[in-house]
Write a structure and sequence with these properties.
alpha+beta; 4-stranded antiparallel β-sheet; about 15% helix
Length: about 260
């Protein structure tokens, strides 16, 4: 038998870790199987569930109530293969496992009764995985609408050029049928006549060249805010993926 653990806690500034009591994990290794446990007392959650042959674990589970968050798993390959064979889809050679449980997130209760965590098919029974949103049940689902308050022409100043653009100041509304007070937001949609270039992430073969911002919708109540947020967004992408001196290819080649 062998035991080891890991400290996952860090101070808010990312400096020297605090005690592993607040956030850590450990493993207990036996000759043929391993039991793992992870815990956290830093974040408030509401979730309880078990997993069957999911994510390479024969069995797994979690119990999260308030700031008590516990996760465990059992690694035992013979049990994993047996469960995988029993619960896989008929046309699969290897299964994806199943999860049973619930979690609360953003005002909705997600319920798993036989959920495939890796794949969803149109023919899957609805009861396998579904959501319950109390606000929708009580007040009805929100209906979205928008109206244009103002349309203006602006100029977007970038280091290499000034890009003419159109700004639409819009009022977006979400209205529930059985709730008298709709949610309203004023925002802006800004669309440059010519898309504003920035470098691709360079992480894959399809994003190594230039990309561009064709339009952007943001929280803004006037044209100046919309222009400032578009400039900040493009410059941030340029600095992050190409460095502070990056310029579009057309500018580099004098076009």
């Amino acid at each position: 038998m062998r035991f080891h653990s890991q400290n996952l806690s860090e101070n808010h500034d990312g400096s020297t870790p605090r005690s592993k009591f607040w956030n850590g994990r450990c493993w207990l290794h036996f000759e043929t199987f391993t039991i793992g446990l992870e815990w956290s007392f830093l974040v408030s959650r509401l979730s309880i569930g078990i997993g069957l042959a999911d994510y390479d674990h024969a069995l797994s589970g979690h119990f999260c109530i308030g700031r008590v968050n516990l996760y465990w798993h059992l690694e035992y390959f013979p049990l994993y293969r047996w469960l995988e064979h029993k619960i896989k889809r008929p046309d699969q050679k290897y299964g994806n496992g199943r999860t049973i449980g619930f979690y609360w997130l953003d005002g909705s209760l997600s319920i798993d009764l036989w959920h495939d965590p890796m794949e969803h098919r149109r023919a899957d029974p609805k009861w396998w995985h579904f959501y319950i949103t109390p606000r929708d049940i009580l007040f009805g689902r929100p209906v979205y609408s928008e109206r244009v308050l103002k349309t203006s022409r602006v100029e977007v100043p970038m280091p290499e050029a000034v890009y003419p653009a159109e700004v639409k100041i819009e009022e977006a509304t979400w209205k529930r049928p059985r709730w008298p007070w709709p949610l309203r937001r004023i925002r802006a949609k800004i669309t440059p006549d010519t898309p504003i270039p920035f470098p691709g992430k360079g992480e894959n073969s399809w994003d190594c060249g230039e990309d561009a911002t064709h339009s952007m919708t943001c929280n803004a109540t006037n044209e100046q805010e919309a222009v400032a947020k578009l400039v900040a967004s493009v410059l941030n992408d340029r600095y992050r993926h190409g460095g502070k001196n990056w310029r579009p290819a057309a500018v580099k080649h004098g076009r």
